[in-house]
Amino acid sequence: MADSVGIQQGSPAVGAAGLVPAAPGAAGTEGSSAAGGSARIAAKKAQLRSSPRPKKLEKLGVYSSCKAEGACKCNGWKSQNPPPTPPQTDQQSNTVNLQEPCRSCSHTLGDHVTHLENVSEEEMNRLLGVVLDVEYLYTCVHKEEDADTKQVYFSLFKLLRKSILQMGKPMLEAQESPPFEKPSIEQGVNNFVQYKFSHLPSKERQTIMELAKMFLNQINYWQLETPSQRRQRVPSDDVVGYKVNYTRWLCYCNVPQFCDSLPRYETTQIFGRTLLRSVFTVMRKQLLEQARQEKDKLPPEKRTLILTHFPKFLSMLEEEVYSHSSPIWSQDFLVGATGGQIPVHTVISAPPVARPIYYSTSPVSVDPSTCGSVSPARKPASVLESNPVGEKRKASEPLHHEENKRPKVVGDIPMDLINEVMATISDPATIPETSLLSAHSARDEAARLEERRGVIEFHVIGNSLNQKPNKRILMWLVGLQNVFSHQLPRMPKEYITRLVFDPKHKTLSLIKDGRVIGGICFRMFPSQGFTEIVFCAVTSNEQVKGYGTHLMNHLKEYHIKHEILNFLTYADEYAIGYFKKQGFSKDIKVPKAKYVGYIKDYEGATLMGCELNPSIPYTEFSVIIKKQKEIIKKLIERKQAQIRKVYPGLSCFKDGVRQIPIESIPGIRETGWKPAGKGKELKDPDQLYSTLKTILQHVKNHQNAWPFMEPVKKTEAPGYYQVIRFPMDLKTMSERLKSRYYTTRKLFMADMQRIFTNCREYNAPESEYYKCANILEKFFYTKIKEAGLIEK
Predict the structure, then answer these.
(1) Polar residues: which segments have biased composition (predicted)?
(2) Closest CA to 768 of 598, 587, 583
(3) How high is the pLDDT of residue 7?
(4) Which residues pair with 101 in a beta bridge?
């Protein structure tokens, strides 16, 4: 393979945005990135998977043992006209003859692939992915000069080769599985920040967190030196222990960046202080040297952080890394000096590693760093939509809806107190600053601030057949086509181009410095009341800045303005997490009759929807939440100041009193305490029976109650009663109700809840049964509240 990669000791690169993680270069090519290498391999896989089935069989036949009668020992079909070694994926010939004899055993190609006749297309494509990984490792083995690295490559090569022969998934066989040391590097750095900087003011502490994230990011992409290189540099070091960690790093962190058949882990999460000690000195020296050499290329806002604060941070961390008595590496670190418990929460988390692109039969392709979505073009809409070209979205643009005039709900808090606190919160000087890399900052905070400063802009654009072409918009459309093609390598460029330039599609484009860096392509169906999201991606060097979230928020406000309040998209398994964060769910609110015929149902994909609330200003939502938190904080502080009065202890117990009402304790009501709300317990047995019978009948009549009407049959669900120890169903509840078993509402509610809990425990979240349980549970509690058995 021309794109094979050799493992070399890399050095960090310092780019315009600060310190950028290094990646192994392509065999002898310095500066190639891991993302670029994996993207090239992913493109080759996409090309092979799009080939006709006979071509796929020919490719797999090379790695399949002969199944002909007579116990043939041939372990792979060999063509009479052998291709170059290793075999290439872009063979020019498209004709495949299954009767062509093998050059080794003389049996036909068909004899080598008989076991693949009934294999699904999805499984065949998975095996083809493993084949390309095998060929990639084959090249690595031959190009790698280091003996230890070559041995690991060869072992992984044999592992993947074996998995193809056995049609299984490759499993690394090792004495230990990740994580290999606790606490991990990530946890140790978290502890370090807590240990050394928890006393600092908020602004300075956020700076430290930014530095810690930067450091963790560097480790995750750092290229370890080979054991032989380390032996030459540090002769007295424990080379055996280092070799073990180096092998683990290759198998679990480095090679899986390019061979996505293998599971991928982050270095900072599976290794601990031992590995960090072995790389810290060299890493610190190279990082600082690189920063000094390229200081003129750093933006002004990053220069002080990297050249001044980062060296101090590394020096302090170095002391704790090599100290034998540092508490940050202790499992008991959570116990403070005073014996109290330090609150447990993650201060920093390393930026997520881009997941490899696995094959899916879903129509959705995902940019793994931005978790975007793609779905094919649908059937033409019955109504042609208007296509405003170059419509700009402004951050300050108001939302036009009557709900903006809604009255404020203040509960039992006096209005004058609310106004007083609001006046305090409105003063920017009183709101604590939050670092953009804070664990508590909003995902879109950085993007929102950049938009306010004019660094980025958002425009809704599209092609038009009725208007004179606009050169700038056409350039942006070309830029969007390039971004989507680069970030979504599994999607054919022709397909992306067709949709981006289709007049029925529009794209919310993200513009920075006059060029496109991201966008969301969508198609509106006004007559059906929903919009389909087609592509969503941000260019790789502009990721992890909140642009994806801010793009989606702008798209939501744009649709609220145009009175379309539902999004639909098909997502594969790697896009589901992204859409959940943006408010999407598998519970589709749009009636099926509205989208059937417009969006096709694809096997292996998950239809997700998002219902928009016209009362929410989405681009400013995180700011509103932040202010609300500050209001609550101020109210709590004022309340605490009012109740600091100390009351004498209770003396009634000395006089023989054994129990008193909680509300009689002096000062208890001043704290805001209220008696716990309780539902009405019906004391009349006949009244309770009548009420429960009515509720149970409503539940049984519900359209989603059908899975729970009778006990689960063993023939329909094998193993059900091994998983569910206490089964329950509506028929059993009816019998219990008839026999007057339910003497209290709690017994009745417990049995009903057990039905829903059992269903969710046994069935997968995407199953129809799971969805029915959720819907019926909501309906049940609505009826319980209506009957007054619990408080509303």
Answers:
(1) 1-11
(2) 587
(3) 29
(4) 108
The response to whether 574 counts as a known ligand-binding position is yes
Strand partners, 325: none
Q: Which of 322, 352, 370 corresponds to the end of one domain?
A: 322
Q: Please name which of 365, 373, 376, 381 lies closest in space to residue 524, comparing C-alpha atoms.
A: 381
Residue 672 lies in a domain: no
The total number of structural domains in the chain stands at 5
532, 542, 557, 777: the catalytic one is 532
Residue 124: alpha-carbon gap to chain centroid: 27
Task: Determine which of 177-181, 345-349, 491-495, 717-721 has the lowest per-residue pLDDT on average.
Answer: 345-349
Instruction: Report DSSP state, residue 317.
Output: H
Q: Does residue 617 contact residue 591 with C-beta atoms inside 8 Å?
A: no
Is 138 annotated in some ligand binding site? no
Peptide bond into 183 cis (omega under 30): yes
The pLDDT tens digits for 287-296 are: 888 888 887 7
pLDDT at residue 357 in the model: 27
Q: Same domain, yes or no, for 458 and 578?
A: yes
Same domain, 474 and 597: yes
CATH code of the domain in which 590 resides: 3.40.630.30
For residues 331 and 224, the model is more confident at: 224
Query: What residue numbers bound the domain in which 549 lies?
Result: 444-614
Is the confidence at residue 665, as pLDDT, over 60?
A: yes
In angstroms, the CA 92 to CA 87 distance is 12
Asked whether the beta carbons of 566 and 612 are under 8 A apart, the reply is yes
Task: Specify if 417 maps to a domain.
Answer: no
Give the C-alpha separation, 559 to 522, whole Å: 11
**Domain of residue 705, CATH code:** 1.20.920.10
Question: Is the domain of 718 the same as that of 737?
Answer: yes
517 lies in the same domain as 458: yes
205 phi and psi, to 5 degrees? Answer: -65, -35
Segment 743-763 shows an average pLDDT of 91
Question: What is the band of 355 on the pLDDT scale with cuts at 50, 70, 90?
Answer: very low
| Residue 532 designated active-site | yes
Neighbours of 504 (CB within 10 A): 17
CB distance 366 to 488 below 8 Å? yes
Residue 99 labeled ligand binder: no
Q: 338 or 747: whose pLDDT is higher?
A: 747
The answer as to whether 8 is a domain residue is: no
Q: How far apart are CA 449 and CA 619, in angstroms?
A: 11
DSSP notation for 594-633: HHBTTB---TT-EEEEEE--TT--GGGHHHHHHHHHHHHH
Distance separating alpha carbons of residues 756 and 749, to the nearest angstrom: 11
Q: Are both 591 and 641 inside the same structural domain?
A: no
Residues 196 and 264 in one domain: yes
Q: Does residue 274 share a domain with residue 160? A: no
User: Alpha carbon of 427 to those of 414, 423, 630, 768: distances in Å?
Assistant: 21, 7, 12, 51
Residue 409 has pLDDT above 50, yes or no: no
Q: Which of 38, 188, 2 is nearest to 540 (CA)?
A: 38
Query: Phi and psi for 260 in degrees, rounded to 5?
Result: -75, 5
Residue 537 assigned as binding residue: yes
Contacting residues for 714 by C-beta, under 8 A, at least 6 apart: 720, 721
Asked if residue 598 and residue 451 are part of one domain, the reply reads yes
Residue 15 placed within a domain? no
- Specify whether the CB–CB gap between 763 and 697 falls below 8 A: no
Query: Is 549 annotated for ligand binding?
Result: yes
Q: Which of 590, 614, 638 is the last residue of a domain?
A: 614
Q: Is 229 annotated as a binding residue?
A: no
Q: Tens digit of pLDDT for each residue in 2-28?
A: 333 332 233 333 332 333 333 333 333
Residue 86: both structure tokens together: 């290793």
Quick one: pLDDT band at residue 79, thresholds 50, 70, 90? confident
pLDDT at position 48 is 76
